[in-house]
From TrEMBL:
This is Molybdopterin cofactor-binding domain-containing protein. Its cofactor is Mo-molybdopterin; [2Fe-2S] cluster. It comes from the Bacteria. GO terms for molecular function: 2 iron, 2 sulfur cluster binding; FAD binding; iron ion binding; oxidoreductase activity. Keywords: 2Fe-2S, FAD, Flavoprotein, Iron, Iron-sulfur, Metal-binding.
Amino acid sequence: PTPADLRLAQPDRGSEPVVVRADGSAADAPAGPIGQPLPRVEGRLKVTGQARYAHEVRDLAAPMQVTAPSTGAATAQGVAPVPSAAAQGGSRAHAHGVIVGATAARGRITQLDTRVAETLPGVLLVLTHRNMPRQGRPDDGAAPQMTSDRIDQYDQPVALVVADSLEAASAAARRIEVTIEPDLSGARYDIEAAREAAVTPKAMIRPPESIVGNLDRAMREAPFTLDATWTTPHQSHAAMEPHAAVADWDGDALTVHCANQMVQRAPKILAATFGLPEAKVHCISSFIGGGFGGKLEVRAETVLATAAALALKRPVRVMQTRQQVFHNTSHRSATVQRIRLAADESGVLSGLGHEVLASNRPGAHFYEMAADQTRSLYAAAHRRTTHRLAPLDLPESASMRAPGEAVGLLAIEGAMDELAEMLGLDPIELRIRNEPEVDPESGAPFSTRRLVDCMLHGARRFGWADRPLTPANRREGRLWIGTGMAAAIRGNLLQPASARVRLDEAGATVETSMTDIGTGSYTVLAQIAAETLGLPVERITVRLGDSRLPAGPGSGGSWGANSSGMAVRLACEKLRDKLAGTGERTGSASADFKPGDELKTYSQYSYGAHFAEVSVDDATGEVRVRRMLGVFEAGRLLNARTARSQALGGMIFGIGSALMEELAVDAKRGFFVNHDLANYHVPAHADVPALEVEFLESFDDKANALGGKGLGELGISGAGAAIANAVWHACGVRVRDYPITPDKLM
Ligand code: MOS
């Protein structure tokens, strides 16, 4: 690639976010701080290395606090530091733990010899199932590790070696002698092969099945039908920061710095695991280097660091290696998705079916809700969506960015493109003909739904008008060039949230246990507080990521910004009202936000339209994305710059899911072969062309008083399907088996 190819930029607009009206004209700039494209208030801390991620924490007993840097320096100190090692005569210096993992996916430990390791210099402790403290059970909310000699998954921790230094711990870890007698009989690693054992899972957010009318009959009677199956592979979150924790037990209370998206829940889990009073457990996640769902739960490193800290009564830090993260956290399940479409000559759907097979560990409840969005996406009188869950003896499947939509749209939006081809219709026109007036299954009115506006505006901006309906019509040398589009939809969720605000002469401090996983929480909460209190953003300090602060909603499900934002909004309003007319300039207030009934009485989704142009090399089958445009409607933006960054990140994720991402399962031995970033391919800069993002100006008054809807997971939703559709348009080959690697095009 040339340097120009490597540039990640919007060529004609710089890097400024763009908010537009439906007619394409630029929206007015926001009147107050909310919505302004402010750079991240913690950005300087991050690029100067002052932001301490869990594994880097040395002396902080409280979360870092963040103030917009234009006041001078961003604040980086924690409050009440842990007494340093020197002050304690060295006894409380941090120790380092290294996890030893199982080399079989299932079986029993028949030999576990720690004696040599224990005698090596610097080694303080070796924990195994034989000397772990007593732990609670998962049924009681605990997350126990190393409970017995049984191995249930590949790389499952079998020992934690703790030493004075990381080097000593690593060296000793290699001297642990472990023999595992594998028992892989009857183990299942292939989702299709496990189909017969699949069950209908317990409802999560919505019921796993929906049936309206009679889809089979609609399929029999319609002049045009499509019945095809799409498959998506297991995928890994692959966040930049590996899971890490530093635990410190002072004999009475436990402080744990961890990388956790839902830090307010972490003390409950650790308390249940180790039989501690919850009030004695304090968890802090000041900065998190990406999560994508992989850090929603308390994982092995945090539990094992805690166990070692309890035993040693000194701080212990444990980081999973990059390789361990792939097995010892969670991943997105593979899916097999059958789509059925029944349509008349004009493309109006009479039937719509989306049936999903996903996998998880035997007995686990989480399922990839890949058909959920289809219930609200297009009108059709006869409908059927189902989810089935196949038991696989792989590590746990759980939420990964836009659980459900991220892979569900890879199937339904490919199917819509195939139907458009069958009917000789423009794909946007087909979607417009099936645009529902109310939610097609629940009958609820939409809060705001601007899907058609997103498609039409995107079509104008992308240059869609002259696109031929047939494939393989544009060639540049060896390259076939094509374009494709897909709809984006992602459910809007809200969670209860609490916040506190204190005002003094210097400004206001906002506190909630909300986290910032790189998405901009510090910044948008500062903007909301500034606007509500009538202060400049520079006078707002934000403290997040501490379980002792008023309970935040955590970062998950695209609910974080609006839920925590509403709590901050309400607390600031309360304080403002309290001080009004008193002449007072100091005070504090707390508030709790609870989602209202509008979540039930309105169909609430964020929407968008993705457009992609790709080239396919005629000789090698290599696909390159040449440009992409995403047009989104997610209600009011809290910060147009961080919103755009979220959308960009999601679209880049879409490139990965369309073309690269795949955990390769060793079907004999039951592990992910490509468990590192050399072999688990995610888009690198050279894979990412100029991406453009635009937002339609919007305010969803049914979503919440701030007017915003979920945004974090919208950008990935549908992005990969637009690329797949563009690949077909380039070269005429439909690939329904993701990722679209060159071999599938040859
Ligand atoms: Mo999200 S997959 O709930 O971090």
